[in-house]
Structures are given as C-alpha cells and as structure tokens.
Design a protein that fits this description.
The protein has 214 residues and is an alpha/beta fold. It has 6 helices and 9 strands, in the order βαβαβαβαβαββαββ. It has helices at 13-23, 43-50, 66-79, 96-101, 125-134, 169-193, and strands at residues 2-8, 30-37, 55-57, 84-87, 106-110, 138-145, 155-162, 197-200, 203-206. The strands form 2 sheets. The protein has a 7-stranded mixed beta sheet with strand order 3-2-1-4-5-6-7, covered by helices on one side. A two-stranded antiparallel sheet has the order 8-9. It is globular and about 50 Å long. The two termini are 21 Å apart. The relative contact order is 0.16. Bound molecules: 5-O-phosphono-beta-D-ribofuranosylamine. 5-O-phosphono-beta-D-ribofuranosylamine (GRF) binds at residues 10-15, 44, 88-89, 109-111, 124, 177, 181. 5-O-phosphono-beta-D-ribofuranosylamine is lined by residues 10-15, 44, 88-89, 109-111, 124, 177, 181.
C-alpha cells in the first residue's frame, strides 16, 4: 500500500474527489494516511474528519519563513513514513529539501493547461481571471509532479474545458474543477499507486495495465 499524504489549505474539493474515488475503489493500493493542512480553519479539515482520516496541522503562519515551514512539513511526512504527497488545493511553495526528498513523488493539481496561465501569481481565481482576459476558448487543468520551479514539473495528466461566452471567473473555476480537476487528480494518484508511471527527464510515461515492459 502506498502511504499517501494529502496537503490542503482551503475548501478541499479536490481532497473530497480523492476521498470519494478511494471510497468507490477507484484508487487501489493506496492508503490515505494523513491530511495535512497549512490552515487550521480550512474546510478541507471537516471533509477529512467526516471521512475518518487522520488530520494534522502544519500552520504556515506560525513559522518565521518558508525554510522552517518546509522543514516542519518534511519532518511530519518522514515521521509518518509517507511515500506519496498530493497537493490538493495546497497554496504554498515548499523549498528544495522536500522536493529532493520526494522527487517525482509529489503530485500537484493546477487549474490551467500548463504551460499556459501558470507560475508565480497564477493561483486560485486569478488563473481564471487571466484566462478570460486573454480570450482563450479552451482552458482546463493539469496534474503534474512538483519540482523546484512552480508549475513546471513533469506532466501526468491534462483535461481541457471549453470557455463559454457568459463565463465569469467563478463559473469557469467551478466548471474546471467539476469537469477536469476532480477527475484527473484522483486518476493521477491511482496511476501512481498502481506503479504505472515512469518519469524520463521531464516526460511522464503511463504504462498500460498488464504491460510488463518498463
Ligand atoms: C483549485 O482550483 C485548485 O486547482 C487550486 O485551488 C483551488 C481550490 O481547490 N490549487 P480545493 O477546493 O481547495 O481543492
């Protein structure tokens, strides 16, 4: 079983998608070992508690800087003997030591089709505001491995979503979650836990089940 920690900061709808998929047996060989929140007020905590999952708080605001916050999070993950880390609406960038310790073992969900509308300043509703302002007709979401460069890691899965004439940032955000994020993040976790992902450089290869060739 892959011991998995889900890192959250806010509403937790992506966490809920993983909890539901796991409950319905769509994520095999995966133990949801911990939900770790950077925010003691996050609604995601209630979702985890309702699902009977262990909850831990590593509150960003009590740490003097990112390096100390990263160390505290790394210690927590190693104490829990975590293999896979999932950023599910986790709003913080963690430093190199954690990315190195968990190379190609941290999966993030970003609400755009990377490499468009990503990187510094592109998070939450801001992404959808910029998508609408640019007038693109297609957006979507990306599940990718985390590296030191924000939103730049090897891409596991992407799903496109059409932009509508009458979209607002809020309506687009909701549809990107429903049609893309809540589908590809559990799927990416499932592929990892089945051992079907191989990373060569920045390319992620997804092996077919039953295909024994590396
Ligand atoms: C989502 O759009 C996610 O991609 C982004 O934060 C938003 C909130 O996610 N990182 P959640 O409802 O807390 O999972």
């Amino acid at each position: 079983m892959v011991k998995t920690a889900i890192l959250v900061s806010g509403g937790g709808t992506n966490l809920q998608a993983i909890i539901d998929a796991h409950l319905f047996g769509e994520i095999e060989n995966c133990e949801l070992t911990a939900v770790i929140s950077s925010n003691p007020e996050a609604y995601a905590i209630e979702r985890a508690t309702n699902a009977g999952l262990p909850v831990y708080i590593v509150e960003r605001d009590i740490f003097p800087n990112r390096a100390v916050f990263t160390k505290a999070m790394l210690d927590m993950l190693q104490d829990l003997d975590i293999e896979l880390v999932v950023y599910a609406g986790f709003n913080y960038i963690l430093d190199e030591p954690i990315v190195k310790a968990f190379e190609n073992r941290i999966i993030n969900i970003h609400p755009s089709i990377i490499p468009s509308f990503c990187g510094k300043g592109f998070y939450g509703l801001h992404v959808h505001e910029k998508v609408l302002a640019h007038g693109v007709k297609l957006t979507g979401a990306t599940a990718h491995f985390v590296t030191e460069i924000v939103d730049d890691g090897p891409i596991i899965m992407q799903k496109a979503v059409a932009v509508r004439e009458d979209d607002t940032p809020e309506s687009l955000q909701r549809r990107v979650m429903e049609e893309a994020e809540w589908k590809i993040l559990p799927e990416a976790v499932s592929l990892y836990c089945k051992g079907l992902l191989t990373v060569k450089g920045r390319i992620v290869h997804i092996r077919d089940e039953g295909d024994n060739n590396e």
